[in-house]
Amino acid sequence: xxxxxxxxxxxxxxxxxxxxxxxxxxxxxxxxxxxxxxxxxxxxxxxxxxxxxxxxxxxxxxxxxxxxxxxxxxxxxxxxxxxxxxxxxxxxxxxxxxxxxxxxxxxxxxxxxxxxxxxxxxxxxxxxxxxxxxxxxxxxxxxxxxxxxxxxxxxxxxxxxxxxxxxxxxxxxxxxxxxxxxxxxxxxxxxxxxxxxxxxxxxxxxxxxxxxxxxxxxxxxxxxxxxxxxxxxxxxxxxxxxxxxxxxxxxxxxxxxxxxxxxxxxxxxxxxxxxxxxxxxxxxxxxxxxxxxxxx
Length: 296
Prior knowledge:
36% helix; 8 strands; alpha/beta
């Protein structure tokens, strides 16, 4: 069963206002991803089917997108879909392999607990700022989860207290867990990333897995990426945490990491093929879609 007890009351901070006035209270990255999901759901054969993405946008009154008009901005909506599909498949496979706890760090407006066809009765924990979770559940209403149980943990994952809050919500550190920080980590200062990953590692039982998008430090100054980062800085968002060698970085913290080869993923090749003229070597490797397992 879900821990969710129904839509928040009108007294919930940030929700006692008419629809269409909430965009400024929500993370832009979450709204951009929701916009990509909403557009994808209208395709005849979507890679990601999220029936609630459009509802989030309408309720928030959001119609924008990433700043600027460079090649990376044009690619981003399709990239968001590829990234979501990649981590969807990673979590489903982790559940099949025995990870019956799933922790979404920085869950944003993600609806995996409701939209994925889970192969086992997993317990999904969504760790996120309480205002974001309140908005999400306001829109979702009484929609039941498709996992075995859904728990919302209203704590900013960048804070040092999310581990305690996760345990209080029923998380069992003795059970294998699939962790996901889809876009969380690279927006945080490196020192905060160290704290988040350290807590994640301490709470992980043998057999646990992780997934995270990691920025390639060697590509951020390229002509493909740098103009986007300049435009992004005007929004107050930055790619603060960057890696040159993801396997080494994660290994030093107890994890065996595997950055994905996008060209082995049929859906990635198909969706990104129109952008091939734009994809220099630096552009094609500007981020790593990384998964891994806890080292024994």
